[in-house]
């Protein structure tokens, strides 16, 4: 792998002086169940002849493609699992798809979404096309939001875009190209969360917060006004001491900014908070979304309001990538070096035994949780969905062993995962604004 490609692969797949960390140990009544797993990604070709032609022409490099994110859509009694496979190099024929119930050599086949035509001619930036889908999120208005990052082989072939699909019709609702005014020369949009302020007027009152992992900023998109602006703060930068990763015997170095982002529940009378962290860091941070939505604060200077950002004093002992928060305000996130999944009650103290716990611990199946989502199923119960990608192999320049299981999508009922842990116990009120909990 040449140095240029390695740099791209690392960023694409990271897709991703500390106080001691104390977790309460808990063996869940129900472990995360494996829903899908792959040794290599396979796609839904219309014929064997077409598949082989793509392989012979270099359009499909079997065994080199890694997934980045997933989400699940429930409609009635059916469910659809979406998955992204960013184009970190040539040979990735499909970059956004749905997992079918068919397999090839035991590997679930991924069908292109919304159709094959959206994935052809990626270098030509077609209007109805997807260049490289990185992160996705399904909101409560049955919309699929997609960050289409644009770069291929470390070259910006297409502009970074935000795409929105109506999941009831699979039609495109929105295509928004981020202007140069909010992008830096090294911007890489690696995460997003969708904030539906209210569902009136076809859910037009919606904001999207996008993490720029290379530009060390948050980009805010206002759907109603169809415009965006930048917000920056020192809390969005990586920590040099956390740039070296050791995961399951693989070591690599990367200085990634914001990857993990999540929102507290949207409850009347309670201000909503955006939690976030740089992946190459030990800290967790938050900011009230009402500040982010106020463009006038940042119009002349993205760094204009350092006082609105909060960083917990307590820290992790290892890096973390994606995170998600359920409707009870409980956060779920991976511990990369420890190869575990933790929970945190956001009404409590971060990394404290009274509000933090380990809920999943498996050194094989939990390697590099890239995608973390909370979904509500058809029975109204919440589920935790996690995609693990073993991205450390690509980041360290090591090829995947196609004789092993490399990628998994897992899920579990959140109530069963956190029942009996400190994450579920009620926390004292008034902790959020206690200045002793945060760094100055």
Automatic annotation (TrEMBL):
It is found in: Secreted. GO terms for cellular component: extracellular region. Keywords: Glycoprotein, Secreted, Signal. It comes from the Eukaryota. Pfam families: MRJP. Residues 1-20 form the signal peptide. The keyword Signal applies. The keyword Secreted applies. InterPro entries: 6-blade_b-propeller_TolB-like, MRJP/yellow-related. Belongs to the major royal jelly protein family. PANTHER family: GH10609P-RELATED (PTHR10009:SF7), PROTEIN YELLOW-RELATED (PTHR10009). This is Yellow-like protein. It comes from Phaedon cochleariae (Mustard beetle).
């Amino acid at each position: 792998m040449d140095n240029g490609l390695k740099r791209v692969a690392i960023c694409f797949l990271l897709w991703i002086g500390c106080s001691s960390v104390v977790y309460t140990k808990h063996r869940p009544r129900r472990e995360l169940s494996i829903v899908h797993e792959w040794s290599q990604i396979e796609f839904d070709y219309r014929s064997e002849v077409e598949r082989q032609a793509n392989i012979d022409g270099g359009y499909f490099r079997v065994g080199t493609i890694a997934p980045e994110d997933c989400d699940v859509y429930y409609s009635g009694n059916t469910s659809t699992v979406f998955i992204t496979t960013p184009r970190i190099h040539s040979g990735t024929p499909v970059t956004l798809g749905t997992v079918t119930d068919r397999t090839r050599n035991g590997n679930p086949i991924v069908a292109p979404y919304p159709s094959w035509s959206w994935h052809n001619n990626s270098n030509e930036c077609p209007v109805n096309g997807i260049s490289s889908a990185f992160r996705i999120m399904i909101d409560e208005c049955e919309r699929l939001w997609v960050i289409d990052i644009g770069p291929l082989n470390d070259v910006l072939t297409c502009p970074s875009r935000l795409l929105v699909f109506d999941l009831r019709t699979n039609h495109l609702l929105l295509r928004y190209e981020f202007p140069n005014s909010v992008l830096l020369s090294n911007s890489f949009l690696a995460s997003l969360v969708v904030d539906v302020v209210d569902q009136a007027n076809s859910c037009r009152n919606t904001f999207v917060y996008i993490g720029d992992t290379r530009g060390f900023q948050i980009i805010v998109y206002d759907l109603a006004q169809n415009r965006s602006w930048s917000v920056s703060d020192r809390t969005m930068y990586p920590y040099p001491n956390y740039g070296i990763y050791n995961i399951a015997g693989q070591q690599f170095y990367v200085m990634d900014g914001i990857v993990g982002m999540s929102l507290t529940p949207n409850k009347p009378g309670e201000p909503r908070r955006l939690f976030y962290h740089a992946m190459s860091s030990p800290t967790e941070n938050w900011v009230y979304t009402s500040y982010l939505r106020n463009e006038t604060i940042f119009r002349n200077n993205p760094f204009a309001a350092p006082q609105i950002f909060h960083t917990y004093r307590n820290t992790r002992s290892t890096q973390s990538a994606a995170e998600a928060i359920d409707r009870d305000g409980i956060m779920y996130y991976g511990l990369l070096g420890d190869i575990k999944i933790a929970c945190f009650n956001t009404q409590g103290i971060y990394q404290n035994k009274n509000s933090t716990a380990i809920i999943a611990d498996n050194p094989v199946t939990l390697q590099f949780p890239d995608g973390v989502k909370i979904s509500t199923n058809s029975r109204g119960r919440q589920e935790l969905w996690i995609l693990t990608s073993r991205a450390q192999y690509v980041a360290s320049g090591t090829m995947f062993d196609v004789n092993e299981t490399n990628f998994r999508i897992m899920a579990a009922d959140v109530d069963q995962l956190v029942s009996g842990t400190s994450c579920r116990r009620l926390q004292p009120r008034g902790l959020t604004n206690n200045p002793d909990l945060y760094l100055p």
